[in-house]
Amino acid sequence: VPLPVADSLYVDRIESDPECRPIFIGRSTPHRERMLERSKHYLELLHIAHGTKAEELADALRRATISVNLHNEPYPSFENRVSISLAAGRLVVSEPLSPTHGLEPGIDFVEVTNAWEVDQAIWAVKQYPEGYEPMRLRGRLKAELFRASRVYPRLVNAALHDLAVFGSERRLG
How confident is the prediction for the chain on average, in pLDDT? Predict the structure, then answer.
């Protein structure tokens, strides 16, 4: 199960501004720097490489239209910035996710595999934002899978069900 996303990071009203800068939130690694080099210089991608408080994170995402997700190294994984960005109504441009946790490339997010594709995806979204609006809206809907107020009750109920069915060697209470 991916990390749940705090309900406070979800937006109800999704606004799009093609003039907003694309954003990448995550520490710097050689792989990420190679993937973002041109986007930082030519497409004004904002790279936030340090931790932020929830309010600062929400504000940074509000000022972005496109959120880029890159792995530490060139191997697939699922970073929590994907679900956070989707919850904030941002269009996600990401390297392949594994596992996908129900997200579908080309439907819920733009999948990229190299630096050129990152640049092209950002350029295309900035030039034709209306063409990517259905994907962004679908991604926001899929983000509900990660909403903390929905995930935690399911986990607690599953644990209580397991205890009821299988019991425990430990005494409760």
Answer: 90
Contacts of 44 (CB under 8 A, 6+ apart): 21, 22
| Residue 57 identity (one-letter amino acid) | L
**Residue that wins the pLDDT comparison between 14 and 85:** 85
The span from the CA of 28 to the CA of 26, in Å, is 6
pLDDT score at 172: 56
CA dihedral 47→14→83→117, nearest 10 degrees, is -50
CB neighbours (10 Å) of residue 60?
17
Alpha-carbon gap, residue 43 to 154, rounded angstroms: 41
CA–CA separation, 139 and 103 (whole Å)? 8
pTM of the model: 0.88
* Cis peptide upstream of residue 99 (ω within 30 degrees of 0): yes
